[in-house]
Structure formats: structure tokens, C-alpha cells
Design a protein that fits this description.
Belongs to the ROK (NagC/XylR) family. By secondary structure, this protein is of the alpha/beta class. The chain has three domains: 74 residues, Winged helix-like DNA-binding domain superfamily/Winged helix DNA-binding domain (Arc Repressor Mutant, subunit A); 127 residues, ATPase, nucleotide binding domain (Nucleotidyltransferase, domain 5); 155 residues, 2-Layer Sandwich (Nucleotidyltransferase, domain 5), CATH 3.30.420.40. 41% of the residues lie in helices and 19% in strands. Strands 5-4-3-6-7 form a five-stranded mixed β-sheet, with helices on both faces. It has a five-stranded mixed β-sheet with strand order 10-9-8-11-12, with helices on both faces. A two-stranded antiparallel ribbon has the order 1-2. Helix 6 links the parallel strand 6 and strand 7. Helix 7 crosses helix 14. It is globular and about 75 Å long. It starts with 5 loop residues before the first helix and ends in a 13-residue tail after the last helix.
Length: 403
């Protein structure tokens, strides 16, 4: 067995090849070796060694030289976006989505597949596997390496690297184990709200470091991006606004055992029941969203009230967390300008009109883009790149493919 090259392992806490790549990635127009030395604060010899390693293993390219103001023109170093491909996937309640992106985050192919609410998890995973394979083929990946697969799924996620695996809960654990057995690539599973929040924070229209995200559907899921990273807290529980208690005209019991949680009072499941009692033809959140989009006044009235109830919780969260933006996603929120307007009105009235409150810019695709971007960030993190180089992986290896 080939022994890992200690040069890459020992350098992981210094200016390693992985750190060099991270600096180059941040320069969209490329960077010269001299500029790289200045940006990284290291010597020319350190840069030369790292650049050579990255070129040999296919992570960067040396492109046309820039015009010189004197002396020999300087080569430009750029990320090799063609080196690998990353897959992102979402296991939604009524749809499956898959996207393939290159190393620069550019979408190569995208697919979706509708499923029923009653579709068993085993059938969903099998359908997702087929969707992943077809998306890879459509992306025309050729010799690109499959770097990682990111999956956004409902449920709690508590990664434990020391255990050598992801001890996930319910659907998350099943998803990880199913795809880990079929793909020779790292599998990352993330809570769907966290994945969506991460994508929205990177959207070109936002590009914010601090963002509060709420997925309003049958339930209310929430996530916080702080300093450009998903905030998980000391106990890795993130934030959970669904069980913040609110005032209501009647006591509404929540599945958690408390009374008056905003998720029980204002989420889709409760609104479907109320709309049904008002003689509206609704059985699911999708029915509710359809009527809202069609302009049903009674349904939009319910959603406006729900928005104001949720807005009170969001206003308090904004006071505590001071995010740059509040983003609402989920089928119910995205189909209802009234719900989003209700949240915005309360936040602006109670906190500040400077706080941006809007629907998800990526729409229902926020989760799948977030899953792919998180997997990309993980696969190109300095430590991951150093370990891959130490193991002797590189451009000579053919693309990893599904078993």
C-alpha cells in the first residue's frame, strides 16, 4: 500500500497546498505567483512548491500571461473548474431534485422527479439514485472526478467526525448509508433548511454573511448563517423557531407537548385544517398554496394572519441575532406574497425597515443548490485537499463513478 506523503499532512496547519488553493479560489480573475505571495504572506519558494503540487494534481491551471510593465510577463493561476464534479440532492416531501456543478460552482445539469407524500423512503432513495446517475451522464463529466455528494434531507443532523461516520437521525441516516454504499465519494447529509439558508446567503442578489432562513410548509423549519457559515451552536442544535410560543385566540397543542408553539399555530398543517373548516377544497399544503396563488381571498387572509404571527417570532429573532437579511422559503411561503408581506410588515414595524425580508431567491431549488455548494466547500477545504494529495490522488485518476 502506498504510504501517504507526509509533506502534505505536516503542512495542513501552515501554508499547505490546500491553503494555497483556497487563496486562488477567492480570486475570480486569477492570480500571479507574486500576487499569491503577497495575499498569503509567504515566500516565493513556498508558493512555487504548492503551485507545482496543485498543477500536477489538476487543481489549478496556468493560463495566458498578463501584460507586463517590465520584465517577463507573469503567468496567471486559476482554479481548474473541469477537474471534478459535485452532486447535490434534496429529498423533499413531494419532489426529488438533483444538480451537478463543477469546481467553480457552475451548474452542469439539473433534474427533478415528483413523488407522492406516501412514497416509502426506500423507493425515494432508489429514485434518487437513478436521478443522480442520469444527471452525471447529462453533465458530460468525462474524466472529471466525482468529488462529493451533498444531500439535503429532513431531520436532525449531528456530524461526529471522531466517530468516522455521520450518526444521523431517521431519513438522514438512511440516506447517508444508502448512497455511501453505492458511490466512491464522500457523502454529506445536511438539514434541508440549513442547506437552503447557505445557498440563499451565497445568491448573487444577496451575498450576505448573516442570514436568517425560515422554511414555511406543513411545519416551520429555521436556520441561521452566521459569518458565512451555518450556525449550529454549542450543542450543534442550530436554532429552532418552530417551538417559540405565541399568543393565539385558542389554545393549540403542539406535538412537542407544549401549547401555542408558532409551528402549531401558523404552519401549513394547521392552516389546511382551518381552510377546510371554511369550506375550501384543501387537503394538503399544496392545495392551500394553489388556492393562494389563484387569489382566494379567504385563504390569503389566513396566510396574512399566519405571516403576522410568524413575523412576531421573526422580529424577536432579529432583535437577538441581527441578521442582514431574513429569507422565507418553503412551498407555502413561496406561493403566498400575503404571508411574506405579513412577516415583513411586523419586522419593519417592530424592529427596523432596514431589515431585508424576502422570499427565497432560489425558490424551491434553494435546498439542492445549498447541498451542492456545501459539498463543494467541504471537498475543497484545505484539510480535504491535503489529505487527497497525501493519498496520491490527482488528475491521473479517472472519475469516480457509481458502483
Amino acid at each position: 500500500m502506498t504510504r501517504p506523503n507526509p509533506r502534505f499532512i505536516d503542512a495542513s496547519s501552515q501554508f499547505s497546498a490546500g491553503h494555497c488553493l483556497a487563496v486562488i479560489r477567492r480570486q475570480k480573475d486569477g492570480v500571479t505567483r507574486s500576487e499569491l505571495c503577497e495575499l498569503a504572506g509567504v515566500s516565493r519558494s513556498d508558493v512555487s512548491d504548492r503551485v507545482r503540487d496543485l498543477v500536477e494534481h489538476g487543481y489549478i491551471t496556468v493560463q495566458a500571461r498578463r501584460p507586463s510593465t517590465g520584465g517577463r510577463p507573469a503567468d496567471v493561476l486559476r482554479l481548474n473548474s473541469d477537474r471534478g464534479v459535485v452532486l447535490g440532492a434534496t429529498l423533499g416531501s413531494t419532489s426529488l431534485r438533483v444538480v451537478a456543478i463543477d469546481m467553480a460552482g457552475v451548474v452542469l445539469a439539473e433534474n427533478s422527479h415528483e413523488v407522492k407524500l406516501t412514497t416509502p423512503i426506500a423507493s425515494r432513495l432508489k429514485a434518487m439514485h437513478s436521478l443522480l446517475r442520469s444527471t452525471l451522464e447529462q453533465a458530460g463529466t468525462g474524466t472529471r472526478e466525482l468529488m462529493a455528494i451533498g444531500i439535503a434531507a429532513p431531520g436532525s443532523v449531528v456530524p461526529d467526525i471522531s466517530a468516522g461516520r455521520w450518526p444521523l437521525v431517521e431519513v438522514c441516516r438512511q440516506s447517508h448509508d444508502y448512497f455511501a454504499a453505492r458511490y466512491d465519494a464522500p457523502i454529506m447529509v445536511e438539514h434541508d433548511a440549513c442547506a437552503a439558508a447557505f445557498a440563499e446567503s451565497r445568491h448573487p442578489r444577496r451575498k450576505v454573511a448573516d442570514l436568517l432562513f425560515l422554511d414555511v410548509d406543513a411545519s416551520i423549519q429555521s436556520a441561521l448563517v452566521r459569518g458565512g457559515r451555518i450556525h449550529r451552536g454549542t450543542h450543534r442544535l442550530g436554532i429552532n423557531l418552530e417551538h417559540v410560543m405565541v399568543a393565539a385566540d385558542v389554545d393549540v397543542a403542539c406535538a412537542c407537548g407544549n401549547v401555542g408553539c408558532v409551528g402549531a399555530v401558523a404552519a401549513g398543517a394547521t392552516l389546511v385544517e382551518r381552510a377546510s373548516r371554511a369550506d375550501r377544497p384543501v387537503k394538503t399544503v399544496r392545495d392551500l398554496a394553489r388556492l393562494a396563488a389563484a387569489g382566494d381571498r379567504a385563504v390569503n387572509g389566513l396566510l396574512d394572519d399566519a405571516g403576522r404571527t410568524i413575523g412576531g417570532v421573526v422580529a424577536n429573532a432579529v432583535r437577538l441575532l441581527s441578521p442582514q437579511a431574513v429569507v422565507l422559503g418553503g412551498e407555502l411561503a413561496l406561493s403566498s406574497p400575503a404571508l411574506i408581506a405579513g412577516v415583513r410588515d411586523v419586522v419593519h414595524d417592530q424592529v427596523s425597515a432596514q431589515v431585508r425580508v424576502a422570499g427565497a431567491a432560489f425558490g424551491p431549488r434553494a435546498g439542492v443548490f445549498g447541498a451542492s455548494l456545501l459539498a463543494l466547500e467541504s471537498s475543497l477545504a484545505p484539510a480535504a485537499v491535503n489529505l487527497r494529495l497525501a493519498a496520491g490522488e490527482g488528475g491521473a485518476r479517472a472519475a469516480r463513478r457509481a458502483v
